[in-house]
Each structure stands twice: as structure tokens, then as C-alpha cells.
Write a structure and sequence with these properties.
This protein has 114 residues and is an all-beta fold. It is built from no helices and eleven strands.
């Protein structure tokens, strides 16, 4: 079955960096676009970034442009989210998502605080 396992979250100070990973299994990873979403306490889940199946096409939410970079390694069945210049408002649970399969990971907590 489809499995998406996120990792790499944690506590970081404002201005710091984190790299999230999402390890995928149970489907042909290289055939699917992958996305990251996030959900802050009391808020709806929101789109963060998307990458095409081959990795050549990316799209970002306006609030992360220039700070976050999505990438993928199809040989490792893994998608990444490099997050730089983190702000307290980036605090959320971050989820990996395959829209065409309707599958979500369990999420990884990112907390930005001094």
C-alpha cells in the first residue's frame, strides 16, 4: 500500500534552517508529482510546494518563495523540503501529499521559536 513517511522536523530558532524528507513506498514514485502542505494550530491545511514527477517543474506558495526549495531523488523515492530563513509563522505540522493518489503522510512537526 502507499506509504509516505516524513522526517526532519524539530525546534529551530527564527532565521534557522531545516530539511524535511518524505520517504515514499508502495507506488511508482517517479511517475507522480509530489507536494508539501502544512497545518498550523487552529488553521486549515495549506499548500506549500509542489514538484513534477521528473523534478523539472516546481511551484510554491507565495509565503515561502525565496525561502523554501522542494526537490526529489527518484532513485531514493524521496522528496525534500529545504526550509531557510524560518519564521515563527512557519510553525506547523508539515505533510507530504500525492494528489493523484489522495495519499497523505503522518506529518512532521516544525516549531520556530526562540
Amino acid at each position: 500500500q502507499v506509504q509516505l513517511v516524513e522526517s526532519g522536523g524539530g525546534l529551530v530558532q527564527p532565521g534557522g534552517s531545516l530539511r524535511l524528507s518524505c520517504a515514499a513506498s508502495g507506488f511508482t514514485f517517479s511517475s507522480y508529482a509530489m507536494s508539501w502542505y502544512r497545518q498550523a494550530p487552529g488553521k486549515e491545511r495549506e499548500f506549500v510546494a509542489r514538484i513534477s514527477n521528473g523534478g523539472s517543474g516546481t511551484r510554491y506558495a507565495d509565503f515561502v518563495k525565496g525561502r523554501f526549495t522542494i526537490s526529489r531523488d527518484n532513485a531514493k523515492n524521496t522528496v525534500y523540503l529545504q526550509m531557510n530563513s524560518l519564521k515563527p509563522e512557519d510553525t506547523a505540522v508539515y505533510y507530504c501529499y500525492v494528489r493523484q493518489l489522495g495519499s497523505w503522510g503522518q506529518g512532521t512537526q516544525v516549531t520556530v521559536s526562540s
